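Human: I wish I could look at a protein chain and see how it folds. This is the protein in question:
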Amino acid sequence: MSEEVYHIPVLLEESIDGLQIDPNGIYVDLTFGGGGHSKAILKRLDKGRLVVFDQDDDAYANRPDDERLLFVRHNFRYLGRFLDYLGIDKVDGILGDLGVSSHHFDAAERGFSFRFEGALDMRMSQGVKMNAADVLNTYSFEDLKRIFYQYGEIKKSAKLASEVVKQREIQPFASTIDLKELGEKVGPKKEMNKFLAQVFQALRIEVNREMDVLKDMLAQSAEVLKPGGRLVIISYHSLEDRLVKNFIKSGDCNKTQAETDVFGHAHVPFEAVTRKIVVPSDEEIERNSRARSAKMRIAERV
């Protein structure tokens, strides 16, 4: 399976440049996916090493044969643990493209997209017990409303949650078509595709605990990056970007301002390299429409 088919890397040159790669340094790609970013990093390495994380079997099968690459088949929330296991104390840079690979959206059996009929799965790793159908069939009305509102930014979250509860009493959700048909009853006809994308996104984030995973990784990044090391994160959802922005600014994903000492000095682990978010050019969006919502932030370990 070629990289072009599997996944088109977003903000490729901008993200690799943002890492300021030392040819002999150690770098981490948190989301190997189709390997686009990893292969670009490897091209700039000499005796350096690249640690990549991905829990997906397809991603592992797509890895390049390169002795400088260390593949970790686990979730990147265990960043620190696996670097310890590999005997790596500090790294020079961390890159995280938080987007879902095009391959996942296009694989009907994975259930990530309403464009195809398939099982309502949405698990990044088959080792995760709960899938999207389980969420729809077992979560309370309040919990469904919460995830639709928080993770999908759906204004009609209460209405959607109510319809889910009603529908599952008649017949449990099993396929993407089941959810799509229900969404079409609730969502606005003029923006139906956007609405359905938000519904599926909300479930995917919940199934894979993506916000918790991101928080865990960011906290560990401050521990494993060398002073002067770069953190480059590409996000696709406002909640993800807010967590990254808060962390860079305050050292805490949940705080917008850093705490100060008695002298008014703030002690934060990172300094923003890019004061404003970096977004794809019009040309890139024209080539890859899935890049449209991408936002990149770069920070340096102080």
Notes: Strands lie at 26-29, 49-53, 69-72, 91-97, 225-235, 270-272, 295-301. The radius of gyration is 20 Å. Confidence is low (pLDDT under 50) at residues 1-5. The chain has 14 helices and seven strands.
